[in-house]
Design brief:
Helix content is 30%, strand content 20%. The chain is of the alpha/beta class.
């Protein structure tokens, strides 16, 4: 009796799949992302590079704060702004240099109309949540600075849907949202490219965020509104907020995300450390 694996139809299928993978791999190699641009020393000691919107094991991230800071240091960053999921009642850690990186604590607050990043906020005397307007007003009242997070995410429950409250700013780019609107072929290609050039593979997934830029223009035509690019780095994907980081694929890594792009800030004076 002939085994199934010896039938011509099965051999033909294996040959077809092998040929497809070889051709797809060759295409990826020939059209992969270009070599990364090596940025020189930033002009002036008062100019620093960093990352915004980072999660650790304190919420739904893959690594602890020190390990994430070490990844930021390897990527050449000078500051990292964390934004764990919460209701703002947990006292933020005071600013501190960890692994040579200035680490600042913020919080990502869930509202009925999206997520709101609150920076420079002390521990709230009551849980923040519910309607977006109430959260925006509470953050301002408590002395914080707020950003509408991933405002045009492909996941409706993550997008920001109430632009009437006077938000201080918005994420005009959110790296975690950028891959969600890609097709399977593009994601497969990015996965293969990631094996030898992680930042380039991630950068290829970044599209021009037309909706976010248009909203920024609309809001800024009436009052000053800040736009920032957020990494929304989790050190991988697969776990939802509050779940164990063990339920995730640790890809992309924090370091790869930090090497893809960064925020550059020009300070009034050089940081003292």
């Amino acid at each position: 009796m002939n085994l199934l694996v010896r039938t011509p139809s099965f051999r033909t299928l294996i040959a077809a799949v092998t040929t497809f993978l070889l051709l797809f791999g060759a295409l990826v190699l020939l059209t992969g992302p270009p070599a990364p641009l090596r940025l020189g020393v930033l002009p002036g000691r008062n100019t620093v590079r960093g990352a915004l919107h980072i999660h650790t094991t304190r919420s739904d991230g893959a690594l602890g704060k020190r390990d994430v800071a070490a990844a930021a240091a390897r990527a050449g960053l000078q500051f990292a702004i964390f934004a764990e999921h919460g209701d703002a009642t947990t006292p933020p850690d005071p600013p501190a240099y960890i692994e040579g990186v200035l680490c600042l604590d913020g919080v990502e607050i869930s509202t009925n109309e999206g997520h709101y990043l609150a920076l420079g906020l002390p521990a709230a005397p009551y849980p923040l949540g519910g309607g977006a307007r109430a959260v925006v007003e509470d953050v301002a009242r408590l002395g914080g600075f707020g950003l509408a997070a991933h405002p045009f995410s492909a996941r409706q429950e993550l997008s920001w849907s109430d632009w009437d409250p006077q938000v201080d700013g918005l994420e005009w780019l959110n790296a975690d949202s950028e891959w969600r609107d890609e097709g399977g072929l593009m994601l497969s290609r990015a996965l293969l490219e990631y094996l030898w050039r992680p930042p380039g593979a991630l950068a290829r997934l970044l599209d021009r965020p037309g909706d976010a830029l248009a909203m920024w223009d609309r809001l800024a035509s009436r009052r000053p509104v800040v736009g920032l690019a957020g990494h929304d780095a989790h050190g991988g994907f697969g776990a939802e907020s509050g779940e164990s980081s063990g339920r995730r694929l640790h890809l992309p890594s924090y370091e790869a995300a930090f090497r893809t792009f960064s925020i550059v800030a020009r300070l009034p004076t050089a940081p003292t450390g």
